Amino acid sequence: MLEILRNMSRRKVRTGLTIFGIVVGIFAVTVMGSMTEYFNSLIDNARQGAGEAIIVTPKGGIRATLSTADIGRIERVQGVKAAVPQVATFYGSLGSVSFGPPDQVLGIPPEQILDLWSNDDLAQGRWLQRGDTYQMVVGSNIAKKEKLKLGSVLEWREKNWEIVGLLKETQTAPDGWLIAPMDIVQKTIKRPDLISQINVIPEDTAQATALVAKIKDQVSNVNVQTLDQQLDAIEQGLAVFNAILLSSAVLAAIIGGLAVVNTMIMSVSERTPEIGLKKAIGATNRNIISEFLLEAAVIGLLGGAIGFLLGWGVAALLNLAASEALGGAEIFKITPRLAAIAIGFAVTLGIVAGLLPAWNASRLDPVVALREEA
Amino acid sequence: MLQTNDVSLIYRNGEGVTYAVKKANVTVNKGEFLGLVGPSGSGKSSLLYLMSGLKDANEGDVTFEGNSYQAMQNGKLIDLRRKRYGFIFQQHFLINYLSVFENIMVGALEQAAPARKRANELIAELGLEKQSNRLPWQLSIGQRQRVAIARALINEPAIVFADEPTAALDQTTGHQVVDLLAQYRGHGSIVFVTHDPEMLSKADRVIRMRDGEIVSEEKQNGAHSREGEIVSEEKRNGSHAREGVMISNEKRNGNR
Question: Is the model's pTM score more than 0.90?
Fold first, then answer.
Protein backbone atom coordinates (compact mmCIF):
# COMPACT_ATOMS: atom_id res chain seq x y z
CA MET A 1 0.00 0.00 0.00
CA LEU A 2 2.80 2.38 0.97
CA GLU A 3 4.51 1.51 -2.30
CA ILE A 4 1.36 2.46 -4.21
CA LEU A 5 1.04 5.79 -2.43
CA ARG A 6 4.68 6.57 -3.15
CA ASN A 7 4.26 5.68 -6.79
CA MET A 8 1.23 7.95 -6.97
CA SER A 9 3.11 10.76 -5.26
CA ARG A 10 5.74 10.70 -8.04
CA ARG A 11 3.22 12.36 -10.34
CA LYS A 12 1.67 14.71 -7.85
CA VAL A 13 -0.05 17.03 -10.31
CA ARG A 14 -1.49 14.25 -12.44
CA THR A 15 -2.57 12.17 -9.46
CA GLY A 16 -3.95 15.28 -7.78
CA LEU A 17 -6.01 16.24 -10.82
CA THR A 18 -7.32 12.69 -11.17
CA ILE A 19 -8.33 12.58 -7.51
CA PHE A 20 -9.86 16.05 -7.92
CA GLY A 21 -12.09 14.67 -10.70
CA ILE A 22 -13.41 12.02 -8.32
CA VAL A 23 -13.68 14.57 -5.49
CA VAL A 24 -15.95 16.80 -7.58
CA GLY A 25 -18.16 13.87 -8.56
CA ILE A 26 -18.44 12.47 -5.04
CA PHE A 27 -18.98 15.96 -3.63
CA ALA A 28 -21.99 16.26 -5.95
CA VAL A 29 -23.19 12.76 -5.03
CA THR A 30 -22.91 13.62 -1.33
CA VAL A 31 -24.72 16.96 -1.50
CA MET A 32 -27.45 15.74 -3.84
CA GLY A 33 -27.66 12.45 -1.98
CA SER A 34 -28.01 14.20 1.36
CA MET A 35 -30.97 16.10 -0.06
CA THR A 36 -32.64 12.90 -1.23
CA GLU A 37 -31.83 11.32 2.15
CA TYR A 38 -33.65 14.24 3.78
CA PHE A 39 -36.74 13.71 1.64
CA ASN A 40 -36.61 9.97 2.17
CA SER A 41 -36.37 10.45 5.93
CA LEU A 42 -39.43 12.69 5.82
CA ILE A 43 -41.39 9.92 4.15
CA ASP A 44 -39.98 7.21 6.42
CA ASN A 45 -40.77 9.18 9.57
CA ALA A 46 -44.23 10.03 8.32
CA ARG A 47 -44.83 6.38 7.55
CA GLN A 48 -43.75 5.37 11.04
CA GLY A 49 -46.26 7.76 12.56
CA ALA A 50 -48.95 7.10 10.00
CA GLY A 51 -50.75 4.29 11.78
CA GLU A 52 -53.80 3.25 9.82
CA ALA A 53 -55.46 6.66 9.46
CA ILE A 54 -57.62 7.18 6.38
CA ILE A 55 -57.54 10.58 4.74
CA VAL A 56 -60.63 11.93 2.97
CA THR A 57 -60.14 15.01 0.81
CA PRO A 58 -62.55 16.82 -1.50
CA LYS A 59 -62.56 16.25 -5.25
CA GLY A 60 -62.36 19.30 -7.46
CA GLY A 61 -59.08 21.10 -6.89
CA ILE A 62 -57.55 23.42 -4.38
CA ARG A 63 -60.67 25.56 -3.72
CA ALA A 64 -62.94 22.54 -3.13
CA THR A 65 -64.12 21.83 0.39
CA LEU A 66 -65.80 19.11 2.36
CA SER A 67 -68.96 19.74 4.32
CA THR A 68 -70.32 18.82 7.74
CA ALA A 69 -72.75 16.57 5.86
CA ASP A 70 -69.76 14.60 4.55
CA ILE A 71 -68.64 14.01 8.13
CA GLY A 72 -72.06 12.55 8.94
CA ARG A 73 -72.02 10.32 5.87
CA ILE A 74 -68.56 9.00 6.71
CA GLU A 75 -69.47 8.38 10.35
CA ARG A 76 -72.38 6.24 9.16
CA VAL A 77 -70.12 3.91 7.17
CA GLN A 78 -69.78 0.62 8.98
CA GLY A 79 -66.34 0.19 10.50
CA VAL A 80 -65.66 3.89 11.09
CA LYS A 81 -64.76 4.63 14.70
CA ALA A 82 -64.38 8.40 14.31
CA ALA A 83 -64.27 11.04 11.61
CA VAL A 84 -62.17 14.04 12.60
CA PRO A 85 -62.44 17.11 10.38
CA GLN A 86 -59.55 19.46 9.91
CA VAL A 87 -58.90 22.73 8.21
CA ALA A 88 -55.42 23.53 6.98
CA THR A 89 -53.88 26.78 5.85
CA PHE A 90 -50.36 28.01 5.27
CA TYR A 91 -48.73 29.60 8.27
CA GLY A 92 -46.35 31.81 6.27
CA SER A 93 -46.94 33.60 3.02
CA LEU A 94 -47.18 31.46 -0.14
CA GLY A 95 -43.94 32.93 -1.45
CA SER A 96 -41.83 31.84 1.52
CA VAL A 97 -39.04 29.36 0.85
CA SER A 98 -39.63 25.84 2.08
CA PHE A 99 -37.83 22.52 1.59
CA GLY A 100 -40.15 19.67 2.41
CA PRO A 101 -43.64 20.11 3.88
CA PRO A 102 -44.67 23.75 4.39
CA ASP A 103 -45.52 25.18 7.81
CA GLN A 104 -49.27 24.85 8.29
CA VAL A 105 -51.91 25.96 10.75
CA LEU A 106 -54.29 23.07 11.37
CA GLY A 107 -57.71 23.60 12.84
CA ILE A 108 -59.02 20.50 14.63
CA PRO A 109 -61.99 20.25 17.02
CA PRO A 110 -60.32 20.12 20.49
CA GLU A 111 -62.66 17.41 21.73
CA GLN A 112 -61.48 15.09 18.93
CA ILE A 113 -57.76 15.76 19.18
CA LEU A 114 -57.10 12.59 21.16
CA ASP A 115 -58.66 10.50 18.37
CA LEU A 116 -55.63 11.49 16.26
CA TRP A 117 -52.89 12.05 18.80
CA SER A 118 -51.85 10.89 22.22
CA ASN A 119 -50.24 12.61 25.16
CA ASP A 120 -47.01 10.79 24.24
CA ASP A 121 -46.75 13.06 21.21
CA LEU A 122 -46.30 16.09 23.45
CA ALA A 123 -42.88 17.26 24.57
CA GLN A 124 -44.32 19.85 26.95
CA GLY A 125 -47.67 21.28 28.00
CA ARG A 126 -51.08 19.96 27.14
CA TRP A 127 -53.33 19.25 24.18
CA LEU A 128 -56.18 21.55 23.17
CA GLN A 129 -59.31 21.00 25.20
CA ARG A 130 -62.97 21.92 24.99
CA GLY A 131 -63.38 25.63 25.61
CA ASP A 132 -59.98 26.62 24.14
CA THR A 133 -60.09 29.53 21.69
CA TYR A 134 -56.87 31.30 20.78
CA GLN A 135 -54.65 28.53 22.07
CA MET A 136 -52.17 26.55 20.01
CA VAL A 137 -49.99 23.44 20.19
CA VAL A 138 -46.93 23.86 17.95
CA GLY A 139 -44.35 21.61 16.30
CA SER A 140 -40.64 21.67 17.13
CA ASN A 141 -39.49 23.64 14.04
CA ILE A 142 -42.11 26.32 14.64
CA ALA A 143 -41.05 26.57 18.29
CA LYS A 144 -37.41 27.00 17.21
CA LYS A 145 -38.16 29.43 14.43
CA GLU A 146 -40.50 31.61 16.48
CA LYS A 147 -38.59 31.06 19.73
CA LEU A 148 -41.73 29.82 21.46
CA LYS A 149 -42.03 28.33 24.93
CA LEU A 150 -45.05 27.26 26.94
CA GLY A 151 -47.06 30.37 27.68
CA SER A 152 -45.51 32.37 24.82
CA VAL A 153 -47.84 34.44 22.72
CA LEU A 154 -47.67 34.19 18.95
CA GLU A 155 -49.21 36.73 16.66
CA TRP A 156 -50.86 35.22 13.58
CA ARG A 157 -53.42 36.89 11.34
CA GLU A 158 -53.62 39.85 13.70
CA LYS A 159 -54.58 37.67 16.63
CA ASN A 160 -52.55 36.66 19.67
CA TRP A 161 -52.35 32.92 20.27
CA GLU A 162 -51.20 31.38 23.53
CA ILE A 163 -48.89 28.39 23.23
CA VAL A 164 -50.21 25.63 25.52
CA GLY A 165 -48.32 22.65 24.14
CA LEU A 166 -45.13 21.76 22.29
CA LEU A 167 -44.95 18.64 20.08
CA LYS A 168 -42.05 16.25 20.16
CA GLU A 169 -39.69 16.47 17.18
CA THR A 170 -40.73 14.01 14.45
CA GLN A 171 -38.45 15.11 11.58
CA THR A 172 -41.51 15.22 9.39
CA ALA A 173 -44.56 17.41 8.67
CA PRO A 174 -45.85 17.86 12.27
CA ASP A 175 -42.63 19.72 13.15
CA GLY A 176 -44.02 22.58 11.07
CA TRP A 177 -47.58 22.48 12.36
CA LEU A 178 -49.53 24.90 14.55
CA ILE A 179 -52.67 23.18 15.85
CA ALA A 180 -55.58 25.31 17.01
CA PRO A 181 -59.36 24.90 17.54
CA MET A 182 -61.02 24.38 14.15
CA ASP A 183 -63.83 26.90 14.52
CA ILE A 184 -61.42 29.64 15.58
CA VAL A 185 -59.11 28.92 12.62
CA GLN A 186 -62.10 28.98 10.21
CA LYS A 187 -63.13 32.32 11.67
CA THR A 188 -59.62 33.73 11.51
CA ILE A 189 -59.11 32.87 7.85
CA LYS A 190 -62.64 33.98 7.07
CA ARG A 191 -63.72 30.59 5.64
CA PRO A 192 -66.28 29.48 8.25
CA ASP A 193 -67.41 26.44 6.22
CA LEU A 194 -64.00 25.23 5.05
CA ILE A 195 -63.12 21.64 5.88
CA SER A 196 -59.83 20.64 4.15
CA GLN A 197 -59.85 16.99 5.05
CA ILE A 198 -61.46 14.41 7.25
CA ASN A 199 -59.28 11.98 9.17
CA VAL A 200 -61.05 8.66 9.52
CA ILE A 201 -60.15 6.32 12.36
CA PRO A 202 -61.18 2.71 11.60
CA GLU A 203 -62.62 0.45 14.29
CA ASP A 204 -60.31 -2.32 13.11
CA THR A 205 -57.01 -1.01 11.80
CA ALA A 206 -56.41 -4.27 9.94
CA GLN A 207 -59.44 -3.47 7.81
CA ALA A 208 -58.28 0.03 6.82
CA THR A 209 -57.90 -0.76 3.13
CA ALA A 210 -61.35 -2.40 2.96
CA LEU A 211 -62.80 0.61 4.75
CA VAL A 212 -61.32 2.91 2.09
CA ALA A 213 -63.32 1.03 -0.55
CA LYS A 214 -66.49 1.24 1.51
CA ILE A 215 -66.18 5.01 1.98
CA LYS A 216 -65.54 5.45 -1.74
CA ASP A 217 -68.75 3.51 -2.43
CA GLN A 218 -70.92 5.35 0.03
CA VAL A 219 -69.63 8.93 -0.07
CA SER A 220 -69.52 10.81 -3.36
CA ASN A 221 -67.16 13.54 -4.53
CA VAL A 222 -64.31 12.61 -2.21
CA ASN A 223 -60.83 11.15 -2.56
CA VAL A 224 -60.12 8.42 -0.02
CA GLN A 225 -56.69 7.04 0.76
CA THR A 226 -54.89 5.55 3.71
CA LEU A 227 -52.02 7.76 4.83
CA ASP A 228 -49.69 5.00 3.65
CA GLN A 229 -51.19 5.19 0.15
CA GLN A 230 -50.82 8.96 0.21
CA LEU A 231 -47.18 8.59 1.20
CA ASP A 232 -46.67 6.02 -1.57
CA ALA A 233 -47.91 8.57 -4.10
CA ILE A 234 -45.61 11.25 -2.68
CA GLU A 235 -42.73 8.77 -2.68
CA GLN A 236 -43.31 7.94 -6.34
CA GLY A 237 -43.14 11.63 -7.21
CA LEU A 238 -40.02 12.00 -5.12
CA ALA A 239 -38.39 8.99 -6.76
CA VAL A 240 -38.33 10.82 -10.10
CA PHE A 241 -36.95 13.94 -8.44
CA ASN A 242 -34.35 11.86 -6.60
CA ALA A 243 -33.39 10.03 -9.78
CA ILE A 244 -32.81 13.29 -11.64
CA LEU A 245 -30.87 14.72 -8.72
CA LEU A 246 -28.69 11.65 -8.24
CA SER A 247 -28.12 10.85 -11.89
CA SER A 248 -26.64 14.31 -12.49
CA ALA A 249 -24.30 13.74 -9.56
CA VAL A 250 -23.43 10.21 -10.71
CA LEU A 251 -22.71 11.57 -14.19
CA ALA A 252 -20.25 14.02 -12.67
CA ALA A 253 -18.58 11.16 -10.80
CA ILE A 254 -18.38 8.99 -13.94
CA ILE A 255 -16.65 11.83 -15.77
CA GLY A 256 -14.20 11.84 -12.88
CA GLY A 257 -13.81 8.10 -13.43
CA LEU A 258 -12.71 8.73 -17.03
CA ALA A 259 -9.79 10.70 -15.64
CA VAL A 260 -8.84 7.59 -13.67
CA VAL A 261 -8.89 5.51 -16.88
CA ASN A 262 -6.59 8.06 -18.53
CA THR A 263 -4.24 8.16 -15.55
CA MET A 264 -4.04 4.40 -15.31
CA ILE A 265 -3.34 4.02 -19.03
CA MET A 266 -0.53 6.56 -18.66
CA SER A 267 0.72 4.74 -15.59
CA VAL A 268 0.82 1.38 -17.40
CA SER A 269 2.58 3.00 -20.35
CA GLU A 270 5.23 4.63 -18.16
CA ARG A 271 5.77 1.54 -16.09
CA THR A 272 5.95 -0.98 -18.92
CA PRO A 273 9.60 -1.93 -18.20
CA GLU A 274 8.75 -2.26 -14.49
CA ILE A 275 5.87 -4.58 -15.40
CA GLY A 276 8.21 -6.51 -17.68
CA LEU A 277 10.73 -6.94 -14.90
CA LYS A 278 8.11 -8.02 -12.38
CA LYS A 279 6.71 -10.57 -14.80
CA ALA A 280 10.19 -11.81 -15.67
CA ILE A 281 11.04 -12.43 -12.02
CA GLY A 282 7.82 -14.29 -11.39
CA ALA A 283 4.87 -11.95 -10.93
CA THR A 284 1.65 -13.55 -12.17
CA ASN A 285 -0.98 -11.81 -14.28
CA ARG A 286 -3.10 -11.68 -11.15
CA ASN A 287 -0.30 -9.92 -9.22
CA ILE A 288 -0.04 -7.25 -11.94
CA ILE A 289 -3.82 -6.78 -12.19
CA SER A 290 -4.10 -6.53 -8.40
CA GLU A 291 -1.36 -3.93 -8.24
CA PHE A 292 -2.96 -1.63 -10.81
CA LEU A 293 -6.49 -2.19 -9.52
CA LEU A 294 -5.33 -1.38 -6.01
CA GLU A 295 -3.79 1.83 -7.30
CA ALA A 296 -7.05 2.74 -9.06
CA ALA A 297 -9.03 1.83 -5.94
CA VAL A 298 -6.78 4.02 -3.79
CA ILE A 299 -7.38 6.94 -6.18
CA GLY A 300 -11.12 6.25 -5.88
CA LEU A 301 -10.92 5.92 -2.09
CA LEU A 302 -8.98 9.16 -1.64
CA GLY A 303 -11.24 11.03 -4.06
CA GLY A 304 -14.32 9.50 -2.46
CA ALA A 305 -13.26 10.27 1.11
CA ILE A 306 -12.24 13.86 0.33
CA GLY A 307 -15.34 14.43 -1.82
CA PHE A 308 -17.60 13.03 0.89
CA LEU A 309 -15.99 15.12 3.65
CA LEU A 310 -16.27 18.24 1.50
CA GLY A 311 -19.88 17.44 0.72
CA TRP A 312 -20.56 16.84 4.40
CA GLY A 313 -18.98 20.16 5.31
CA VAL A 314 -20.93 22.07 2.68
CA ALA A 315 -24.18 20.31 3.66
CA ALA A 316 -23.56 21.25 7.30
CA LEU A 317 -22.93 24.89 6.31
CA LEU A 318 -26.05 24.96 4.16
CA ASN A 319 -28.05 23.42 7.00
CA LEU A 320 -26.74 26.14 9.29
CA ALA A 321 -27.73 28.82 6.80
CA ALA A 322 -31.11 27.18 6.20
CA SER A 323 -31.65 26.82 9.92
CA GLU A 324 -31.25 30.55 10.34
CA ALA A 325 -33.34 31.39 7.30
CA LEU A 326 -36.04 28.76 7.71
CA GLY A 327 -36.15 28.36 11.43
CA GLY A 328 -34.43 25.18 12.36
CA ALA A 329 -35.26 23.19 9.25
CA GLU A 330 -32.42 21.05 7.93
CA ILE A 331 -32.51 20.34 4.25
CA PHE A 332 -29.45 18.05 3.89
CA LYS A 333 -29.21 14.83 5.82
CA ILE A 334 -25.89 12.98 5.94
CA THR A 335 -26.43 9.37 6.92
CA PRO A 336 -24.05 6.42 7.39
CA ARG A 337 -25.83 4.85 4.39
CA LEU A 338 -24.96 7.89 2.26
CA ALA A 339 -21.34 7.77 3.42
CA ALA A 340 -21.10 4.09 2.50
CA ILE A 341 -22.75 4.65 -0.88
CA ALA A 342 -20.62 7.71 -1.78
CA ILE A 343 -17.27 6.19 -0.80
CA GLY A 344 -18.20 2.72 -2.04
CA PHE A 345 -19.25 4.21 -5.35
CA ALA A 346 -15.95 6.10 -5.64
CA VAL A 347 -13.89 2.97 -4.94
CA THR A 348 -15.98 0.89 -7.36
CA LEU A 349 -15.65 3.61 -9.97
CA GLY A 350 -11.87 3.61 -9.50
CA ILE A 351 -11.68 -0.17 -9.80
CA VAL A 352 -13.91 -0.27 -12.90
CA ALA A 353 -11.90 2.54 -14.45
CA GLY A 354 -8.68 0.66 -13.70
CA LEU A 355 -9.87 -2.69 -15.08
CA LEU A 356 -8.91 -2.23 -18.72
CA PRO A 357 -5.48 -0.67 -18.09
CA ALA A 358 -4.74 -3.34 -15.44
CA TRP A 359 -5.81 -6.10 -17.83
CA ASN A 360 -3.60 -4.66 -20.58
CA ALA A 361 -0.67 -4.45 -18.17
CA SER A 362 -1.10 -8.08 -17.16
CA ARG A 363 -1.06 -9.23 -20.78
CA LEU A 364 2.29 -7.64 -21.56
CA ASP A 365 4.96 -10.03 -22.81
CA PRO A 366 7.82 -9.58 -20.31
CA VAL A 367 10.49 -9.69 -23.00
CA VAL A 368 8.70 -7.09 -25.12
CA ALA A 369 8.01 -4.97 -22.05
CA LEU A 370 11.65 -5.09 -21.01
CA ARG A 371 12.67 -3.74 -24.40
CA GLU A 372 10.60 -0.58 -23.87
CA GLU A 373 12.64 2.48 -23.06
CA ALA A 374 12.80 2.88 -19.30
CA MET B 1 20.55 -29.20 -14.08
CA LEU B 2 19.09 -27.30 -17.03
CA GLN B 3 19.11 -28.56 -20.57
CA THR B 4 17.78 -27.35 -23.87
CA ASN B 5 16.88 -30.07 -26.34
CA ASP B 6 16.93 -28.94 -29.96
CA VAL B 7 15.17 -25.72 -29.03
CA SER B 8 14.27 -23.26 -31.74
CA LEU B 9 12.73 -19.81 -31.63
CA ILE B 10 11.18 -18.82 -34.90
CA TYR B 11 9.95 -15.43 -36.09
CA ARG B 12 7.62 -15.42 -39.05
CA ASN B 13 7.94 -12.65 -41.63
CA GLY B 14 5.02 -13.00 -44.00
CA GLU B 15 5.51 -16.40 -45.57
CA GLY B 16 9.15 -16.72 -44.56
CA VAL B 17 10.58 -17.80 -41.23
CA THR B 18 13.64 -16.58 -39.41
CA TYR B 19 15.34 -18.68 -36.79
CA ALA B 20 16.38 -16.53 -33.83
CA VAL B 21 17.60 -19.78 -32.29
CA LYS B 22 17.96 -22.99 -34.28
CA LYS B 23 17.99 -26.43 -32.70
CA ALA B 24 20.21 -25.41 -29.81
CA ASN B 25 21.39 -27.95 -27.27
CA VAL B 26 22.87 -26.46 -24.14
CA THR B 27 23.44 -27.89 -20.70
CA VAL B 28 23.87 -25.75 -17.62
CA ASN B 29 25.63 -27.63 -14.87
CA LYS B 30 25.17 -27.02 -11.21
CA GLY B 31 27.30 -24.19 -9.91
CA GLU B 32 29.02 -23.33 -13.20
CA PHE B 33 29.57 -20.01 -14.91
CA LEU B 34 28.43 -20.46 -18.49
CA GLY B 35 29.13 -17.74 -21.03
CA LEU B 36 27.06 -17.19 -24.19
CA VAL B 37 28.89 -14.96 -26.62
CA GLY B 38 28.24 -13.80 -30.13
CA PRO B 39 27.75 -10.73 -32.24
CA SER B 40 24.60 -8.68 -32.20
CA GLY B 41 21.68 -10.69 -33.62
CA SER B 42 23.38 -14.04 -33.11
CA GLY B 43 20.49 -15.31 -30.95
CA LYS B 44 22.27 -15.41 -27.61
CA SER B 45 19.66 -13.33 -25.77
CA SER B 46 16.88 -15.32 -27.44
CA LEU B 47 18.50 -18.52 -26.24
CA LEU B 48 18.65 -17.09 -22.71
CA TYR B 49 14.93 -16.26 -22.91
CA LEU B 50 14.20 -19.85 -23.95
CA MET B 51 16.40 -21.29 -21.20
CA SER B 52 14.78 -19.10 -18.54
CA GLY B 53 11.21 -19.68 -19.70
CA LEU B 54 10.66 -16.06 -20.70
CA LYS B 55 9.94 -17.28 -24.22
CA ASP B 56 8.34 -20.51 -25.32
CA ALA B 57 10.25 -22.62 -27.78
CA ASN B 58 8.59 -23.19 -31.15
CA GLU B 59 10.52 -26.44 -31.44
CA GLY B 60 12.24 -28.61 -28.86
CA ASP B 61 11.98 -28.34 -25.11
CA VAL B 62 13.81 -27.17 -22.02
CA THR B 63 14.08 -29.17 -18.84
CA PHE B 64 15.08 -28.03 -15.39
CA GLU B 65 16.00 -30.72 -12.88
CA GLY B 66 14.27 -33.18 -15.18
CA ASN B 67 11.03 -31.22 -15.46
CA SER B 68 9.97 -30.23 -18.95
CA TYR B 69 8.83 -26.65 -19.49
CA GLN B 70 6.26 -27.89 -21.98
CA ALA B 71 4.78 -30.22 -19.40
CA MET B 72 4.59 -27.51 -16.76
CA GLN B 73 1.34 -25.70 -16.06
CA ASN B 74 1.55 -21.94 -16.66
CA GLY B 75 1.80 -21.17 -12.97
CA LYS B 76 4.61 -23.64 -12.37
CA LEU B 77 6.91 -22.01 -14.90
CA ILE B 78 6.22 -18.61 -13.34
CA ASP B 79 6.83 -20.17 -9.95
CA LEU B 80 10.10 -21.61 -11.19
CA ARG B 81 11.25 -18.18 -12.38
CA ARG B 82 10.27 -16.62 -9.08
CA LYS B 83 11.76 -19.24 -6.77
CA ARG B 84 14.72 -20.78 -8.59
CA TYR B 85 15.92 -18.24 -11.12
CA GLY B 86 17.43 -14.78 -10.87
CA PHE B 87 17.56 -12.23 -13.66
CA ILE B 88 19.86 -9.37 -14.57
CA PHE B 89 19.36 -7.37 -17.74
CA GLN B 90 21.31 -4.85 -19.75
CA GLN B 91 19.28 -2.10 -18.12
CA HIS B 92 18.98 -2.23 -14.37
CA PHE B 93 15.15 -1.83 -14.38
CA LEU B 94 15.18 -0.49 -10.86
CA ILE B 95 11.88 0.98 -9.73
CA ASN B 96 12.61 4.65 -9.44
CA TYR B 97 10.34 5.42 -6.50
CA LEU B 98 11.81 2.66 -4.33
CA SER B 99 15.03 2.81 -2.32
CA VAL B 100 17.97 0.48 -2.92
CA PHE B 101 16.80 -1.81 -0.11
CA GLU B 102 13.22 -1.85 -1.39
CA ASN B 103 14.34 -2.55 -4.94
CA ILE B 104 16.25 -5.56 -3.73
CA MET B 105 13.18 -6.73 -1.82
CA VAL B 106 11.09 -6.54 -5.02
CA GLY B 107 12.65 -9.86 -5.95
CA ALA B 108 12.12 -11.46 -2.53
CA LEU B 109 9.72 -14.35 -2.17
CA GLU B 110 8.37 -12.90 1.07
CA GLN B 111 8.90 -9.70 2.97
CA ALA B 112 9.63 -11.36 6.31
CA ALA B 113 12.72 -10.91 8.49
CA PRO B 114 14.95 -13.59 6.84
CA ALA B 115 14.58 -11.94 3.43
CA ARG B 116 15.29 -8.51 4.91
CA LYS B 117 18.39 -9.92 6.61
CA ARG B 118 19.53 -11.43 3.33
CA ALA B 119 18.94 -8.09 1.55
CA ASN B 120 21.10 -6.31 4.11
CA GLU B 121 23.82 -8.95 3.73
CA LEU B 122 23.81 -8.45 -0.04
CA ILE B 123 23.93 -4.69 0.41
CA ALA B 124 27.05 -5.16 2.57
CA GLU B 125 28.65 -7.68 0.21
CA LEU B 126 28.09 -5.40 -2.77
CA GLY B 127 29.36 -2.32 -0.94
CA LEU B 128 26.06 -0.45 -1.02
CA GLU B 129 25.62 0.25 2.72
CA LYS B 130 25.78 4.01 2.29
CA GLN B 131 23.33 3.89 -0.59
CA SER B 132 20.78 1.62 1.10
CA ASN B 133 18.15 4.34 1.47
CA ARG B 134 18.89 6.18 -1.74
CA LEU B 135 16.72 6.19 -4.80
CA PRO B 136 18.06 4.81 -8.10
CA TRP B 137 18.63 8.22 -9.66
CA GLN B 138 21.01 9.02 -6.81
CA LEU B 139 23.29 6.11 -7.76
CA SER B 140 26.01 5.70 -10.37
CA ILE B 141 25.35 3.33 -13.27
CA GLY B 142 27.63 0.72 -11.74
CA GLN B 143 25.87 0.98 -8.38
CA ARG B 144 22.50 0.55 -10.07
CA GLN B 145 23.67 -2.62 -11.75
CA ARG B 146 24.97 -3.89 -8.41
CA VAL B 147 21.51 -3.34 -6.93
CA ALA B 148 20.09 -5.33 -9.84
CA ILE B 149 22.54 -8.13 -9.01
CA ALA B 150 21.45 -8.09 -5.37
CA ARG B 151 17.81 -8.23 -6.48
CA ALA B 152 18.63 -11.28 -8.61
CA LEU B 153 20.43 -13.02 -5.75
CA ILE B 154 17.94 -12.30 -2.94
CA ASN B 155 16.32 -15.74 -3.18
CA GLU B 156 19.66 -17.55 -3.67
CA PRO B 157 18.57 -18.82 -7.07
CA ALA B 158 19.72 -22.05 -8.66
CA ILE B 159 20.55 -20.16 -11.85
CA VAL B 160 21.21 -16.47 -12.49
CA PHE B 161 20.42 -15.42 -16.05
CA ALA B 162 22.36 -12.30 -16.98
CA ASP B 163 21.49 -10.76 -20.32
CA GLU B 164 24.27 -8.36 -21.37
CA PRO B 165 24.55 -6.87 -17.89
CA THR B 166 27.79 -5.11 -18.79
CA ALA B 167 26.76 -3.69 -22.16
CA ALA B 168 25.90 -0.28 -20.78
CA LEU B 169 28.97 -0.13 -18.52
CA ASP B 170 32.56 0.91 -19.06
CA GLN B 171 35.19 -1.84 -19.05
CA THR B 172 36.24 -1.36 -15.44
CA THR B 173 32.71 -1.30 -14.07
CA GLY B 174 31.77 -4.16 -16.38
CA HIS B 175 34.57 -6.32 -15.00
CA GLN B 176 33.50 -5.45 -11.45
CA VAL B 177 30.01 -6.70 -12.27
CA VAL B 178 31.42 -9.91 -13.76
CA ASP B 179 33.59 -10.42 -10.67
CA LEU B 180 30.58 -10.01 -8.39
CA LEU B 181 28.60 -12.52 -10.40
CA ALA B 182 31.52 -14.92 -10.56
CA GLN B 183 31.57 -14.96 -6.74
CA TYR B 184 28.13 -16.55 -6.84
CA ARG B 185 29.50 -19.53 -8.76
CA GLY B 186 29.24 -22.59 -6.59
CA HIS B 187 26.17 -21.28 -4.77
CA GLY B 188 24.33 -21.38 -8.05
CA SER B 189 24.91 -21.37 -11.79
CA ILE B 190 25.35 -18.28 -13.93
CA VAL B 191 24.34 -17.96 -17.55
CA PHE B 192 26.01 -14.84 -18.80
CA VAL B 193 25.21 -13.40 -22.23
CA THR B 194 27.57 -10.87 -23.76
CA HIS B 195 28.90 -9.72 -27.10
CA ASP B 196 32.26 -8.95 -25.48
CA PRO B 197 34.44 -12.09 -25.10
CA GLU B 198 36.66 -10.22 -22.64
CA MET B 199 33.87 -10.32 -20.08
CA LEU B 200 33.96 -14.10 -20.07
CA SER B 201 37.52 -14.56 -18.82
CA LYS B 202 36.13 -16.03 -15.59
CA ALA B 203 33.59 -18.33 -17.24
CA ASP B 204 33.96 -22.09 -16.86
CA ARG B 205 32.60 -22.73 -20.30
CA VAL B 206 31.86 -20.50 -23.26
CA ILE B 207 29.33 -21.16 -26.01
CA ARG B 208 29.68 -19.12 -29.18
CA MET B 209 26.67 -18.36 -31.34
CA ARG B 210 26.17 -17.02 -34.83
CA ASP B 211 22.94 -16.63 -36.83
CA GLY B 212 20.93 -18.46 -34.19
CA GLU B 213 23.15 -21.51 -34.08
CA ILE B 214 25.76 -22.72 -31.64
CA VAL B 215 29.05 -22.73 -33.47
CA SER B 216 31.40 -23.77 -30.70
CA GLU B 217 31.56 -24.75 -27.07
CA GLU B 218 34.75 -24.70 -25.06
CA LYS B 219 35.92 -25.10 -21.53
CA GLN B 220 38.21 -22.35 -20.38
CA ASN B 221 41.58 -22.65 -18.74
CA GLY B 222 41.40 -22.51 -14.99
CA ALA B 223 37.74 -23.27 -15.00
CA HIS B 224 36.36 -23.99 -11.56
CA SER B 225 35.42 -27.51 -10.65
CA ARG B 226 31.73 -28.03 -10.40
CA GLU B 227 29.38 -30.49 -8.91
CA GLY B 228 27.31 -31.19 -11.98
CA GLU B 229 28.23 -33.17 -15.02
CA ILE B 230 27.29 -32.94 -18.65
CA VAL B 231 24.44 -35.21 -19.38
CA SER B 232 24.89 -37.48 -22.34
CA GLU B 233 22.89 -36.90 -25.51
CA GLU B 234 21.17 -40.27 -25.10
CA LYS B 235 19.99 -39.48 -21.60
CA ARG B 236 18.71 -36.11 -22.69
CA ASN B 237 16.74 -37.58 -25.54
CA GLY B 238 15.24 -40.12 -23.18
CA SER B 239 14.21 -37.47 -20.69
CA HIS B 240 12.65 -35.42 -23.46
CA ALA B 241 10.60 -38.34 -24.69
CA ARG B 242 9.33 -39.15 -21.21
CA GLU B 243 8.29 -35.71 -20.16
CA GLY B 244 7.51 -33.93 -23.39
CA VAL B 245 3.79 -33.34 -22.93
CA MET B 246 2.92 -30.67 -25.45
CA ILE B 247 0.79 -27.70 -24.57
CA SER B 248 0.00 -25.03 -27.07
CA ASN B 249 2.17 -21.94 -27.29
CA GLU B 250 -0.95 -19.77 -27.37
CA LYS B 251 -2.10 -21.12 -24.02
CA ARG B 252 1.27 -20.60 -22.41
CA ASN B 253 1.69 -17.13 -23.88
CA GLY B 254 -1.57 -16.16 -22.24
CA ASN B 255 -0.11 -16.20 -18.76
CA ARG B 256 3.57 -15.84 -19.25
Answer: no
